[in-house]
Amino acid sequence: MRLIAENLSGERGGEAVFAGIGFAIEDGQSLVVTGPNGSGKSTLLRVIAGLLPHLHGRIAIEGGGEDFPTVASACHYLGHQNAMKAALTVDENLAFWRRFSGDGRLSIADALEQVDLGGLGHLPFGYLSTGQKRRAAIAKLLVSHRPVWLLDEPTAGLDNASEARFTELMKAHCAAGGIVAAATHLPLGLGGATALEMGRAHG
Ligand SMILES: Nc1ncnc2c1ncn2[C@@H]1O[C@H](COP(=O)(O)OP(=O)(O)OP(=O)(O)O)[C@@H](O)[C@H]1O
Predict the structure, then answer these.
(1) pTM for the full predicted model
(2) ABC transporter domain spans which residues (predicted)?
(3) Could you list the residue range(s) of the whole structural domain that residue 109 is in?
(4) Which of 7, 22, 57, 106 gives 110 a disulfide partner, CB atoms 3.0 to 4.6 angstroms apart?
């Protein structure tokens, strides 16, 4: 599978935010998007996910087969918001995402173990601490059948140990043939990632 962008431009509120973006990421590879505040990192990830339209250019998935015929069907987008319902338990939230995205590699209980939230699935999501909420949102990725992880500041609010654990989860996802595209201000520890710096001339 291959995620490709060609000469991509995006806009917010009628103003061009970026132009001339191009990349190709294959199975097992990652893209790390950096750049100053307001340079368009979040906009780019939302354009890739199909949550915002692009002005020009092309974004496509190649080799996705019957399971992933479109970019949107291949992607799991984790934005600044965790996209979990505060009043539902962690288990109920993850069960929703599992149904929505297709059964992933891990069960809900195993995914919670992976993010060190084992035994907390019965709690309402709203009871969790900020970092625990982010870890529960990361567990969404593990219970979902989506090869392309689109991550916007994924480690915001995580302590050092959780950050290191998430790096290992991203590496394992890539080692299993997945693709990671992440916008970040902090190093993510993804050796060999393709770097894309926003706020520079592209094209
Ligand atoms: N809904 C909107 N309407 C108009 N302009 C917007 C909207 N959302 C974002 N923008 C503008 O688009 C530009 C890019 O924003 P974006 O959130 O993509 O940047 P970013 O690189 O992710 O920033 P940060 O590092 O602060 O998260 C900014 O100038 C921002 O003010």
Answers:
(1) 0.94
(2) 3-201
(3) 2-197
(4) 106
